[in-house]
């Protein structure tokens, strides 16, 4: 069964939001994964890695799955009608509409989270309700054909969950094994509930610049 996955790529995307699910989707036999943007010019991730789009909004083929990753570059997308119109149009066609991390906010800005259960990065979770979503504190959340994932590293978990929905658990487990995905983090500081208070405060300070800009934008559009 041939499957077509589309992942939005944009300036200042969080690369692991994109490359985590990309690796999972590309590991499915007979799959095609498209990196989609307005044009074919290379864009740089938030950490400087360049990505070359493989399809534009006009040339993108039919998709089974559309995934919106997050990152600092999400902020301008929240008011970018070309992006939002593309996402709205494809949301009516795909089998699964999905996001990783703060990519969920793009779905919210497009009006696609109203009344739907969803999750996002812990430091943006409070924005979900502003878009009419039902916030859920889980790593991967499914509401019908909508699948959203939490923070940056949840993209692999999310990708495997999507593959399981499309092709069954055995295929998802096969992909997991081929990637040898057996996480064993060296520290127990991966969520605000687990992190020591001093670490949580350091993380908040590190993320506050992007959040302040996001707060202003969401204030304008909601």
TrEMBL record:
DJ-1/PfpI domain boundaries: 7-164
Annotated source species: Methylobacterium ajmalii
Protein name: DJ-1/PfpI family protein
Listed SUPFAM superfamilies: Class I glutamine amidotransferase-like (SSF52317)
PANTHER family xref list: ARAC-FAMILY TRANSCRIPTIONAL REGULATOR, DJ-1_PFPI DOMAIN-CONTAINING PROTEIN
Stored Gene3D superfamilies: 3.40.50.880
Highest taxon of the lineage: Bacteria
């Amino acid at each position: 069964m041939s499957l077509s996955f589309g992942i939005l790529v944009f300036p200042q995307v969080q690369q692991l939001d994109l490359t985590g699910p990309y690796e999972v989707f590309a590991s499915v036999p007979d799959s095609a994964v498209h990196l989609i943007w307005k044009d074919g010019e290379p864009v740089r991730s938030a950490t400087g890695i360049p990505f070359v789009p493989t399809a534009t909004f006009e040339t993108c083929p039919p998709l089974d799955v559309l995934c919106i990753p997050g990152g600092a570059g999400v902020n301008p997308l929240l008011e970018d009608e070309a992006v939002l119109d593309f996402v709205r149009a494809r949301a009516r066609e795909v089998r699964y509409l999905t996001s990783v991390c703060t990519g969920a906010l793009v779905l919210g800005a497009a009006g696609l989270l109203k009344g739907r259960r969803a999750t996002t990065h812990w430091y943006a979770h409070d924005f979900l309700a502003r878009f009419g979503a039902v916030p859920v504190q889980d790593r991967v959340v499914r509401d019908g054909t909508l699948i959203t994932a939490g923070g940056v590293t949840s993209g692999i978990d999310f990708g495997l969950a999507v593959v399981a929905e499309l092709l069954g658990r055995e295929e998802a487990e096969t992909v997991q094994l081929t990637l040898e995905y057996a996480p064993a983090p060296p520290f127990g500081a991966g969520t605000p509930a687990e992190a020591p208070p001093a670490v949580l405060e350091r993380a908040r300070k590190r993320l506050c610049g992007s959040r302040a800009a996001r707060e202003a934008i969401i204030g304008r559009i909601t």
